């Protein structure tokens, strides 16, 4: 229980720490330069256009919920079969469903492309992108709990499942079944 509370508290702190922007910071070189050849190649090559009958991200973004908008942006990237998003405050987590046979480096490229697409969109700047299949499924289940009107219990339940898979099981913590513990020996 303490571990769960620690993880929830950590997520709350992390999601709240990136909200303030420094107005006096010098502009980054990326924002000063015009569009590069690489970004135009990225936009023309890796974004899907013919694969879906309707591309939601190109329609009026005001008509979409933030969740649907982020999912649509992620799904436009080549290699993404589907995407699930959960929005909390100014932050979001976007889970990607990609082909399980892809190499780790290709999955990394897809995640980077999605993160770049989200960074270019004002509503996607504070999004975390994951391509872990289990985590993506958990994000989808959190979204289902929210739609049912159970945001807190659904989030807590899925977070407990996630933490349960992440926390390592140490062999010394496993007691053999049906074997009584050995009696303590005296040190004489």
Spell out the blueprint of helices and strands.
Elements: H1 2-17, H2 29-32, H3 37-45, H4 66-75, E1 80-88, E2 91-98, H5 104-120, E3 127-130, H6 133-147, H7 151-166
Parallel strand pairs: 2-3
Antiparallel strand pairs: 1-2
Helix pairs in contact: 1-7, 4-5, 6-7
Structure description:
- Residues 1-20 form the signal peptide.
- Pfam families: Spore_YhcN_YlaJ.
- It comes from Paenibacillus mangrovi.
- The chain is mostly helical and 188 residues long.
- The chain has a domain at 47-132: 2-Layer Sandwich (Alpha-Beta Plaits).
- Helix content is 46%, strand content 11%.
- It is built from seven helices and three strands.
- A three-stranded mixed sheet has the order 1-2-3, sandwiched between helices.
- Strand 2 (91-98), helix 5 (104-120) and strand 3 form a beta-alpha-beta unit.
- The protein is elongated, with a radius of gyration of 22 Å.
Oligomer: single chain
Largest β sheet strand count, sense and barrel closure: 3 strands, mixed
Distance between the termini: 40 Å
Class of the domain at 47-132, according to the CATH hierarchy? Answer: Alpha Beta
Q: From the 3D coordinates, which CATH architecture of the domain at 47-132 would you assign?
A: 2-Layer Sandwich
Which percent bin holds the helix content?
Answer: 40-55%
Strand content: 5-15%
Number of strands: 3
Strand order of the largest sheet: 1-2-3
| Residue-averaged pLDDT | 71
Name given to the CATH homologous superfamily of the domain at 47-132: Cation efflux protein, cytoplasmic domain
Structural class: mainly alpha
| Rg, Å, rounded | 22 Å
CATH fold node name of the domain at 47-132: Alpha-Beta Plaits
Write down the overall geometry.
elongated
Uncertain segments are 28-63
Number of DSSP helices? 7
Query: How do the helices and strands follow one another from N- to C-terminus?
Result: HHHHEEHEHH
Protein name: YhcN/YlaJ family sporulation lipoprotein
Signal peptide: 1-20
Organism: Paenibacillus mangrovi
Pfam family, one: Spore_YhcN_YlaJ
